[in-house]
Amino acid sequence: xxxxxxxxxxxxxxxxxxxxxxxxxxxxxxxxxxxxxxxxxxxxxxxxxxxxxxxxxxxxxxxxxxxxxxxxxxxxxxxxxxxxxxxxxxxxxxxxxxxxxxxxxxxxxxxxxxxxxxxxxxxxxxxxxxxxxxxxxxxxxxxxxxxxxxxxxxxxxxxxxxxxxxxxxxxxxxxxxxxxxxxxxxxxxxxxxxxxxxxxxxxxxxxxxxxxxxxxxxxxxxxxxxxxxxxxxxxxxxxxxxxxxxxxxxxxxxxxxxxxxxxxxxxxxxxxxxxxxxxxxxxxxxxxxxxxxxxxxxxxxxxxxxxx
Length: 308
Prior knowledge:
Layout: H1 2-5, H2 19-31, E1 71-72, E2 93-96, H3 103-110, E3 114-119, H4 123-128, E4 138-141, H5 158-174, H6 176-191, E5 195-199, H7 206-217, H8 222-230, H9 232-235, H10 237-251, H11 253-263, H12 267-281, H13 284-291, H14 296-306
Parallel strand pairs: 2-5, 3-4, 3-5
Antiparallel strand pairs: 1-2
Helix pairs in contact: 5-6, 5-11, 5-12, 6-14, 7-8, 10-11, 12-13
């Protein structure tokens, strides 16, 4: 899509990121068994770019009007490359926002043969918008936050909203319920049969963290993991614009500006999660095994499903 292609540019250290902190993250990722950093990767690696070079065996992932953040975890084209010279396998795992599917989009999903759907939302979120499932798919609710409902608090400044989003990302690593939930999901993805889909409410935060972990296990470069994470801003652009317009109409420009960090993703959110992995566990491998309780056999099974 031309609108997406305009966003495809290599990731760089932002000017606001201190060099020492950036180098610390670089060292952590280089020493980690699963997440490595290669700088300056071409933008053609992004899932929204190079869509015309698809494998003949794997059709292009459909764009869904009713579930705009639906995409293949492995990206498009031939799949994301890994730092060890391999390639991700498309058509194994999909990610999405809530499955408020139209009839046309149900038909599109049915062609993918999705066998299992994992809903990462809270019971309250599910009650407000129940999933419409692809034909033949089973569904499992896995509340990775471990709370009855999630409603974001109100903030006085946009900076406070950004800090909240970063704290949420850190809690994915430190929270007991989150570690149990994410560990159970990754185990189910490893042991499940057939094509599998996981989703959260907007498909950008909880689902975004899971996708980042899967790309890490596949040994996808950090620059690509980050750009894949930021693609939620592109896929959700129309929804973000509509929500912002509603806030502006109901509560004014100031409130819309303050709450805008809740509607999108920023590199700093993902960095907060990775920084917490380093602080709490030292390496991504230790977080997966000690933090999430995954066995090496489970990690190997995920890697085998992820990488061609």
